[in-house]
Amino acid sequence: MTDVTKTFTLRRRTRGRLRRERTTLDAVDGVSFTVPRGEFLGYLGPNGAGKSTTIKMLTGILTPTSGRVRVAGLDPSRSRTALARRIGVVFGQRTTLWWDLPLKDSLTLVRRLYRVEETAYRARLAELTALLELEPFLATPVRQLSLGQRMRGDLAAALLHGPELLVLDEPTIGLDVVSKATVRGFLARLNAERGTTILLTTHDLGDIERLCRRVLIIDHGRTAFDGDLAALRRTAGADRQLVVELAAPGPPVELDGVPVTDVEGPRQTLRLPDGANAASVVAALAARYEIRDIALRETGIEEIIARLYRGDR
Amino acid sequence: MVSDPTAGDATAGDATADDGTVGEGVVPDGGAKTSAAPARVVTTYCLLAWTWVRAAGQYPVSVALLALGTMVTAGLDIMGILVLFTRAPRIAGFTSAEVLFLYGTSALSFSVSDIVLGTTERLGERVRDGTLDVLLVRPVSPLVQIATEDFTPRRFGRIVPPVLVLAFALPRLDIDWTPGRVAVVPLMAASGTVIFGALWVLCAAVQFVLLNSHGATKAITYGGAFLTQYPMTLFARDFVRGVTFVVPLAFVNWEPALYVLDRPDPLGLPGWTRFASPAVGAALSAAAALAWRTGLRHYRSTGS
């Protein structure tokens, strides 16, 4: 009630798993960030970067080795149960539902465990059923659900108690295009209409481009980037790529200030630096070489992030 | 489904300790519920147990067969003891009724604790495959969630043999039933249950750190159950000291039984130790709660 903002102030250093020879691993090494209420934050990083570890510290599963974590004003590891009532957590890789129970029973059980009032529960269930199209499989045991159905069921279970914050660990992993769209559409609505703060980790950049206002990239346990998508594009340089197809395969074309990044038979890829004039480069090329085809590409978010992961900025 | 009140207490005691992490937080709305916590834990336990019973209800035949199997296995234990007596009239100075009394009280305590907390031994598995994470994001003690996992009515099959044995042995004991003795019998069953319950939790807590300690901890729980079924005089003296002072198994039934059966203590311990079982149970529960909380804090989860 009194926590004015949903503020995570994290400054922590986690000694991750203790490996066999007692080498320590800093899974998360001095990461700090604050997420205001109503934010939609995408949390990115290569495998093993410390994303899940962060999520687990935020939800109280893991106790940070050092540093301070506050979620909705609570210390997750000390007040895990109290916090659990105020946040929703969805793991894309494992369900929180009861395997042998029909979805509907699982949801009823969640209601009891979270002590959700009957009337509030009915209203929310009706709403979630409509939005996530749960109706056709409410009576099906969870183990018989498809991955997409199960994920929708998990989302419903995580939201029945009306959490202020929803934490999703790879919610779209393994989903088909249609299910992904449903889940994304639902999350966007939840954030926009309910004002639910959402924190999502993903490897699917479509999730990020379509949903997240803010992106936080973590690598080797440290923050590599924190800002919105536009800023991310700027950080990595707004390079564009020019793909030219020459009449015949040959050595890389030589043009001042426009390096060739890839040669594949007659097709060569050139990197247009920030602010370069594409038209004049094309003209210069056409004057010196015989060109069959030409294409100009914006650097995709994927490429930008790959560069960040590799550490060349 | 009638739950034994003592068993309920055992769970409540252990699990609230875990909930205590909430209570001691500075959050006013989180701490306010602490007083209602024990009752809450029991209701949650029943709710979850019932959920699993219903889930298991999808396969009624297998439930019935397994319940039968459980009873037969326990029945074989008793057969073993009876066979012994066909060879010798006494075991370590105890008559058959007396040994069956020891067996019955120990087996009753153990099976009740097993019903309530037995599945906590699977904690290591859940830690290894990472599914403990899921339990930890729910606002319910993970101990209660693990204890109720796969709860099936067949677990109650385990109580039947000890109850039958006690019904057989109690009237055949050649003792003067003073009010004190009558009172000690249910008390020893209750504190025995608490001691075993605490051992389950302790063993589970160890698995937070030593994932594959499942086999070793089994020796303490199941081994303890087996051990206390026989008179301690059967075992070497140093061994008895070990189970008295290190893993306080002697307090499950041996010490109070010495009082009930009016026997001297082979270790020569003072008279009050015959009545120390409830205190030992409480102390061990506190230790178990502490170990559980420490274990939970050191939980490392899995990758991803």
From TrEMBL, chain A:
ABC transporter domain sequence ranges: 10-245
One Gene Ontology CC term in the entry: plasma membrane
Matches recorded under InterPro entries: AAA+_ATPase (IPR003593), ABC_transporter-like_ATP-bd (IPR003439), ABC_transporter_ATP-binding (IPR050763), P-loop_NTPase (IPR027417)
One Gene Ontology biological process: response to antibiotic
Compartment(s) where it occurs, according to its Swiss-Prot or TrEMBL record: Cell membrane
Record keywords, A-Z: Antibiotic resistance, ATP-binding, Nucleotide-binding, Transport
GO molecular function, one term: ATP binding
Domain of life: Bacteria
Main location: membrane
PANTHER family noted in UniProt: ABC TRANSPORTER ATP-BINDING PROTEIN (PTHR42711), ABC-TRANSPORT PROTEIN, ATP-BINDING COMPONENT (PTHR42711:SF1)
Name the UniProt record assigns to this protein: ATP-binding cassette domain-containing protein
